[in-house]
């Protein structure tokens, strides 16, 4: 079967656009680890600002990766959760974690 390099490049660019931001993967990882409220997510990601987290969550909601649920309590309660579509990215994140751990070992061993 012949590969379509143009199509493959387009698919890679789409993926890189999705994960290209510094905070996208940590936000997904936080959501998939059970953090639902804004402050829980924020606390689980060292260095992220309130403004950046808000921007990422809005963008991810527009891209059908996050579901935002508003409960009409007093005060209003808002929870975020990964969509099923977002969860399809889980295996890729797991592989990235494995690769990152191995890469760190390789670099540290090389320095010793």
TrEMBL record:
Protein name per the record: Winged helix-turn-helix transcriptional regulator
Pfam family, one: HxlR
Domain HTH hxlR-type: 10-108
Provenance organism: Sphingobacterium anhuiense
InterPro entries linked: HTH_HxlR, WH-like_DNA-bd_sf, WH_DNA-bd_sf
UniProt entry keywords in alphabetical sequence: DNA-binding, Transcription, Transcription regulation
